[in-house]
Design brief:
CATH superfamily: Ribokinase
CATH class: Alpha Beta
Number of helices: 10
Radius of gyration: 20 Å
Strand content: 25-35%
Structural class: alpha/beta
Largest sheet: 9 strands, mixed
Order of helices and strands: HEEEHEHEEEHEHEEHHEEEHHH
Number of domains: 1
Shape: globular
Distance between the termini: 10 Å
CATH architecture: 3-Layer(aba) Sandwich
Strand order of the largest sheet: 5-4-1-8-9-10-11-12-13
Number of strands: 13
Length: 328
């Protein structure tokens, strides 16, 4: 019998570095009662504005929500939006010791216009460019120092393709982590898809798997799907490949078998940030020594739970544990 209560309690002993692209998620909320006479677009009557941590910082929030200690390593701009990002870090009791402010970069802000609890428009304020070599070397040194001084259990690469995760940083941090016996997990994007060789867990979604392997196949064509996974595994050799399949659930493999886990019925409100939740939960489960099947099952539940809420939100630990106890 699996003691899920002890597993969830054990999360509080874990320390996780999250390295990658951070952002601010801003929401303009209001109601829609008519279409504009100026253009065929809805008129949103503004009611409130809120901002939340996004990207790698949202992964950190999910880890913190589960009781563990996250450390975010990233680059933000020396701008007003960067000030706001640091303020949000402080408000959420997250450390800023891994944040570097660069005059050569903008802080990414995604602004979503919400009307009647539905997203109508998103505006991205960003500048996509890779960090330079000197900054990459600085972050590599910083990650190593934090990993040693905090005795971290895992390092998450959260890649939103904004420029923090460059090949030299990816390769050196994976090599260091493998030498130290530290778990490495990846939430990838197409740009660096095959740079993450020899990690513990590689977690693309179905779209990213298709794009990364340049293989077009139906989501229900299991043979073609497994061929894509095999192609991926030959190129980067992860210990586990974990693919989120939207309404069809998730897939994970280990050395012996391919495991498909169906989705649980949900009333979906918003899929924003679900991948952040899944990688955070999966990493904590791996760090706690769970089997690949149980890692995927709990992460699958967590991703579904956050999709029931509007906007980028963290998973609720008690709700997740209770669902896991009931369903697993």
């Amino acid at each position: 019998m699996i003691d899920l209560q002890n597993i969830f309690a054990d999360f509080s002993s874990k320390k996780i570095i999250v390295v990658g692209d951070v952002m601010v998620d801003t929401y303009l909320n209001g109601t829609v009662t008519r279409i504009s006479p100026e253009a065929p677009v809805p008129v949103v009557r503004f009611s409130s504005k809120e901002s939340r941590l996004g990207g790698a910082a949202n992964v950190a929030l999910n880890i913190k929500a589960l009781g563990a200690e996250p450390l975010v390593v990233s680059v933000i701009g020396n701008d007003e939006e960067g000030d706001h990002f640091l303020k949000l870090l402080k408000e959420n009791n997250l450390s800023d010791k891994g944040i570097f402010r660069s005059k050569n970069h903008l802080t990414t802000v995604k602004t979503r216009v919400i009307g009647n609890n539905q997203q109508l428009l998103r505006i991205d304020q960003e500048e996509i460019k890779p960090i330079h070599t000197d900054l990459a070397k600085y972050l590599i040194t910083l990650i190593k120092e934090l990993a040693v001084t905090h005795k971290v259990d895992a390092i998450i690469f959260e890649d939103y393709n904004k420029g923090v995760l460059v090949p030299e940083l990816i390769h050196e941090v994976i090599r260091f982590a493998n030498d130290k016996g530290i778990i490495t997990t990846v939430d990838p994007k197409k740009e660096n898809f095959f740079e993450y060789k020899n990690v513990t867990l590689f977690k693309p979604n179905l779209k990213e798997l298709r794009e990364g392997t340049n293989m077009d196949f139906s989501s229900r064509d299991r043979d073609a799907f497994l061929r894509a996974v095999e192609d991926l595994n030959k190129k980067i050799n992860p210990k586990h490949t974990f693919v989120t399949l939207s309404e069809q659930g998730v897939y994970i493999n280990d050395a012996k078998e391919n495991i498909f886990i169906p989705a649980h019925y949900r009333i979906i409100a918003d899929v924003s940030g679900a991948g952040d939740t899944v990688i955070g939960v999966a990493t904590l489960c791996l760090a706690s020594g769970l089997t690949p099947k149980l890692v995927a099952e709990i992460a699958n539940l967590a991703g579904g739970l956050v999709c029931e809420k509007v906007g980028v939100v963290s998973v609720d630990k008690e709700q997740l544990m209770n669902e896991a106890i009931t369903l697993l």
